[in-house]
């Protein structure tokens, strides 16, 4: 006959079988039929071949026990029999005759057997989640039931391991809306409670937003409504044709005209976070408008013109200036012209003459070997021969200065990095001092820095006061020029020069005015420069240098760019470039720029950034641009 024995290990199973069948371990004939591992326990069952004698002793004499409806029933053993054994199950406390049982114990009918189950009380957990800015609060309720256990019934056997089974689960009462509000109040959640979510929250199914703060509404700043056109614009007819001759047009006002109206801003609205903390709004910026020369305050919010003329503004101060008009040529009879406002010349500019104006300049006829400079836009309707014209005034000079400073700052940063690398790896030996390393780098790898220093000193001195030397110039002279680098103790001292250079770059950027336009009809053997755009509206240019901080555009079909250099920051748009004879013409833009030409003859040079390419065969529909560091030249060969 075969019998099964169960235990939490193979040794325990063998031990129990030997004890119950009164067999020595060596004589026990068994087979493992189950060996399972659970999370915190192990279960082993063996099958034992029982001899007739052993079976008779076991069945007849041994004590037995069973569990019926959760109650333990014990039967004492007969003569020569062994008592029944009760084993402590998982998560159960067992005492027999007031003695705590750790694993198992023999029991009799008169034994006092006490079984204690684990206690798991019902609970409810209220969790609150508050956002970092305290503008949103979420909550979630978790309910844990009380679990009531009982002993699991088992059939009669000589050994029984106690097992639990759940009798019932008793859940705690759900939170009421009032209790939820009380919990929120205890956690200082007092503002923006979302009532409709509280009932849903009590079900304990998901996390819900229970309170939402209100952000403060910032006040609106005062604003100024301009009643005149601030910047120049090109006129366009119904067909979309642009009149480039209108570039010099500026709105004029009459005495008594309204120039500007200040509109008052609004006050901010206070907000609150979910804790009830008041959030203060940002107040709008207050503006005070002022009347400069040529203007009057009609009231505290309205500026009117006191004279007829051309209005303009600096910051929140308004001005009106009369236009200086010259109804003849500018020659020896008029003298050189210098005026702070607009200048309109209804004649030409004769040889050797010059004009300087603080705003826009308009010339109706030819300019012959003269010099023109304006802080604003320039329009020349006639031809320009052998002349120098600059639109943008100080901005043009500042842009050159700014480019030198940017290059200087980059080169100096590279020098600092090189010095650091040399020091780190002892490339020149440990005995070399920082000043000596910098001197060697300046003389060999960074020769360009010295030339940049000379340009910066020259440009700084030309614009600064004679009585006070610029800080950047002092630093350059004391650290970089001549034998000065030898005196440097730490190469990091050069970072002060980089910082000073960067500050100067920001000052120059902030000082720049709006880009201007320079519009010409035709130029020959001249130098043309603009802080904004250059527009060639008629025949074109011949052997001239044209420089624009933004773009250069030829607008008339058939206009030519023949010889010389055209340099722009953003783009160059040409009609015809060069000639059939192959006159060399250079077109240059920066890295992100583009160059277009309807027709380009051979020997035209396209330069983008530091890359350049020579056009070897005449082509049409030419487009040059930089792609992956190389110049791409789209074209159709003529």
Account of the protein in words:
Strand 22 (271-272) and strand 23 form a beta hairpin. This protein has 638 residues and is α/β, with parallel strands linked by helices. The relative contact order is 0.05. Mean pLDDT is 86; it is low at 242-250. It is elongated and about 150 Å long. The chain is 20% helix and 39% strand. The protein has nine helices and 49 strands. It folds into four domains: 2-116, no CATH class; 224-266 and 285-320, no CATH class; 324-393 and 514-637, no CATH class; 395-511. Helix 5 crosses helix 6 and helix 6 (434-444) crosses helix 7. It has a 21-stranded mixed β-sheet that branches.
Please specify the SSE layout and strand pairing.
Blueprint: E1 2-7, H1 10-21, E2 30-37, E3 42-49, H2 52-61, E4 64-68, E5 71-75, E6 84-87, E7 93-96, E8 99-101, E9 104-107, E10 113-116, E11 123-130, E12 136-144, E13 146-151, E14 154-157, E15 159-161, E16 164-170, H3 177-186, H4 195-202, E17 208-212, E18 223-226, E19 235-236, E20 242-243, E21 258-263, E22 271-272, E23 278-279, E24 290-291, E25 295-299, E26 302-305, E27 310-314, E28 317-321, E29 324-326, E30 337-339, E31 343-345, E32 354-357, E33 361-363, E34 367-368, E35 371-374, E36 378-385, E37 388-391, H5 394-425, H6 434-444, H7 447-463, H8 471-479, H9 494-511, E38 517-524, E39 527-530, E40 533-548, E41 551-554, E42 560-568, E43 571-577, E44 585-589, E45 594-600, E46 604-608, E47 611-614, E48 619-627, E49 630-637
Parallel strand pairs: 6-15, 24-28, 29-31, 30-32, 31-33, 32-35, 33-36, 34-36, 35-37, 36-38, 37-39, 38-40, 39-40, 40-41, 40-42, 41-43, 42-43, 42-44, 43-45, 44-46
Antiparallel strand pairs: 1-3, 2-3, 4-5, 4-14, 6-9, 7-8, 7-10, 11-12, 12-17, 13-16, 18-21, 19-20, 21-26, 22-23, 25-26, 27-28, 45-48, 46-47, 48-49
Helix pairs in contact: 5-6, 5-7, 5-9, 6-7, 8-9
């Amino acid at each position: 006959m075969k019998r099964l024995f169960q235990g939490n290990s193979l040794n325990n199973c063998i031990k129990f079988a030997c004890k119950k069948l009164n067999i020595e371990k060596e004589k026990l004939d068994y087979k493992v039929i189950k060996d399972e591992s659970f999370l915190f326990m192990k279960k082993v069952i063996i099958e034992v071949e029982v001899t007739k004698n052993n079976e008779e002793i076991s069945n007849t004499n041994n004590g037995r026990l069973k569990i019926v409806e959760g109650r333990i029933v014990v039967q004492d053993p007969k003569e020569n029999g062994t008592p029944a054994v009760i084993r402590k199950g998982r998560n159960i406390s067992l005492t027999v005759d007031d003695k705590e049982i750790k694993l198992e114990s023999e029991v009799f009918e008169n034994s006092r057997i006490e079984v204690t189950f684990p206690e798991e009380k019902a609970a409810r957990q209220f969790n609150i989640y508050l956002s970092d800015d305290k503008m949103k609060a979420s909550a979630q309720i978790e309910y844990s039931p009380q679990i009531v256990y009982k002993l699991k019934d088992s059939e009669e056997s000589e050994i029984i391991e106690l097992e639990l089974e759940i009798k019932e689960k008793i859940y705690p009462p759900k939170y009421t809306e009032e209790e939820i509000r009380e919990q929120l109040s205890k956690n200082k959640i007092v503002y923006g409670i979302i009532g409709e979510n509280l009932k849903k929250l009590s079900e304990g199914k998901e996390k819900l937003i229970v309170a939402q703060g209100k952000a403060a509404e910032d006040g609106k700043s005062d604003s100024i409504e301009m009643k005149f056109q601030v910047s120049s614009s090109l006129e366009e007819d119904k067909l979309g044709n642009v009149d480039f001759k209108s570039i010099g047009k500026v709105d004029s006002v009459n005495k008594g005209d309204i120039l500007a109206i200040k509109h008052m801003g609004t006050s901010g609205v206070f907000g609150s976070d979910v804790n009830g903390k008041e959030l203060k709004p940002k107040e709008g910026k207050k503006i005070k408008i002022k009347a400069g020369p040529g203007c009057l305050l009609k009231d505290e919010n309205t500026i009117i013109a006191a004279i007829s003329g051309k209005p303009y503004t600096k910051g929140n101060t308004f001005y009106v200036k009369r236009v200086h008009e010259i109804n003849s040529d500018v020659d020896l009879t008029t003298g050189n012209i210098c005026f702070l406002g607009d200048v309109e010349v209804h004649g030409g500019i004769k040889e050797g003459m010059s004009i300087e104006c603080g705003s826009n300049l308009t010339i109706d006829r030819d300019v012959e070997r003269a010099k023109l400079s304006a802080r604003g836009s320039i329009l020349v309707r006639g031809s320009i021969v052998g002349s120098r014209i600059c639109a943008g005034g100080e901005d043009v000079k500042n842009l050159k200065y700014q480019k030198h400073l940017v290059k200087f700052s980059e080169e100096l940063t590279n020098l600092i990095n090189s010095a650091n690398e040399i020091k780190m790896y002892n490339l020149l030996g440990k005995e070399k001092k920082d000043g000596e390393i910098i001197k060697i780098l300046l003389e060999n790898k960074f020769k360009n820095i010295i030339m940049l220093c000379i340009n910066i000193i020259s440009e700084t001195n030309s614009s600064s006061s004679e009585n006070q030397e610029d800080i950047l110039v002092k630093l350059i002279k004391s650290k970089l020029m001549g034998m000065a680098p030898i005196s440097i103790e730490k190469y990091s001292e050069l970072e002060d020069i980089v910082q000073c250079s960067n500050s100067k770059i920001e000052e120059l950027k902030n000082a720049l005015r709006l880009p201007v336009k320079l519009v010409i009809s035709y130029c020959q053997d001249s130098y043309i420069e603009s802080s904004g755009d250059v527009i060639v509206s008629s025949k074109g240019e011949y052997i001239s240098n044209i420089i624009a901080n933004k773009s250069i555009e030829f607008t008339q079909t058939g206009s030519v760019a023949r010889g010389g250099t055209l340099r722009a920051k953003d783009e160059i748009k040409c009609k015809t470039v060069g000639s059939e004879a192959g006159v060399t013409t250079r077109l240059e833009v920066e890295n992100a720029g583009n160059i277009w030409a309807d027709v380009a003859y051979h020997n035209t040079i396209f330069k983008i950034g530091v890359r350049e390419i020579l056009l070897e065969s005449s082509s049409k529909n030419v487009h040059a641009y930089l792609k992956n560091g190389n110049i791409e030249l789209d074209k159709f060969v003529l």
